From TrEMBL:
Cellular location(s): Cell inner membrane
Pfam family, one: MFS_1
The keyword ATP-binding is annotated on this UniProt entry: no
The keyword Membrane belongs to this UniProt entry's keyword annotation: yes
Membrane topology (UniProt): Multi-pass membrane protein
Primary localisation category: membrane
Keyword list, A-Z: Cell membrane, Membrane, Transmembrane, Transmembrane helix
Transmembrane segments: 22-43, 63-84, 91-111, 123-144, 196-218, 260-283, 298-317, 324-342, 348-369, 381-398, 410-431
Protein name: Major facilitator superfamily (MFS) profile domain-containing protein
GO CC term, one of those recorded: plasma membrane
Domain of life: Eukaryota
GO molecular function: transmembrane transporter activity
Amino acid sequence: MAGGVPMNVAPVQGGFLTGKKLIFPLALVISLFFLWGFSYGLLDVLNKHFQTVLGITKLESTGLQVMYFGGGYFFYSPIAAEVLKRKGYKVTILMGLGLYSLGAIMFWPTAHFTTAAHAKASFGGFLVCTLVIACGLATLETAANSYAVVIGDPATASARLQFCQSWNGVASFIGPLIASKAFFTGESQNNLTNVQYVYLAVACAGLAVGVLFFFAKLPEVEEQTVRRGSVVQDGTLELGVGHDGKIIGEGPLYKQYNMIFGFVAQFCYVGAQVTIASFFINYATENATYSSAQASQMLSYALITFTVGRFIATALATVFESNFLLTIYCVCAIAFNAYIAAGHGKAAVGVLIAIFFFEAPMYPTIFTLGTANLGRHTRRGAGILVMGVSGGAVFPPIQGAVADAAGTRISYVVPLCGFVVVLAYVVTHWARHGFHVMRVKSESVIATSLEGGAVGGVLETVHYDEKRLSVAAVENIRRNSVGGSVKAVTGGVNAY
């Protein structure tokens, strides 16, 4: 990498690690996923707690989401990517942990010196703390997703990344579970004392992980050139070549319409997901008989549902076409969301928990569909899809304004609109690719990228119909893959 390999870094021999050598680096990466999952779980709880203690409105409380998703993911992710390119994974991860711990430590003086006389000013201080934490988390996510992919065998990259991300889900429901006891019980429900201690513990955890990374001989994977053409979905086409003979992704970036619409869908999905979680406690306390502590526990159950839903959706995706699955999930999410906006009582809260199950596969599936067949634009396209996370900074203020004016229940029409946009995108994509229901084995597989996710970088396994894809085309796939690394090429019942 440009800038050289950092100290205490062992370059990977042979392209990736295997066996026992993979365990320790992967365990360190999992710790990063756990840290930001825990922080995200606390974020939604703080919305309600700050409303109670600082006397701010629902709209004002969404400033936390604006800082987290807008400041951190939209503005700071490009900076993190540049540091990753120039300095490597270890330096980038240490920078992220440093910012994460600094932001958490800043919660201590902000909470300690908060008084009723300057509550609004104190909330401004919490917004700054959240921004610093978000910059650290955006840096960690930029590096960790990529590192989890490239450190091991390309053939198991997707499973490895999915396993690491599952710890994000585990930590995200632990956060609200702890907060239900620390923020909403006894004297703590009317002050910020426990906020100080919780975030001090978060800072210590970040620093401890940082020390481990600093002294660890973390293997560094050299950046390689991403292949020019992407594997396409139609078995009648050779690598990166369409029916018109043009190389897929050869046109300008602004003409990659699937990517552009994928970004819009991702923006709306993340916005919908964040608003559903941000106002969960408000909904449960206003629309049913739950206390804030009970509602916080219910939120943790919803996040458990999300984590379980991700595993189940991953298993289903090995049998069914992703377009078809996401269409079904979107229809269910829209139906459930409509009931949430119209229903009352504990049943409506139960449906609110259930909708998390149908949200689970949306982000990775939209990311995969939106970055398919970009060719030379693969990395830029992936970056644009990641910027779709900024929808989490736009939707909450809109929902907050509606909640203040018409009530929390009615405000859930905002995420409903987001799911409708996602459905329009995925149905269009599904129609363009033949309305397949079952996974088509003869189709070429979009491969796992160097920079994380199925975006066309490292090639895992290429499936093809041997009657339609020539041996020369298969060799072309081998030559155009990253470093010539194709794990396996199969056709029909025969294997190359």
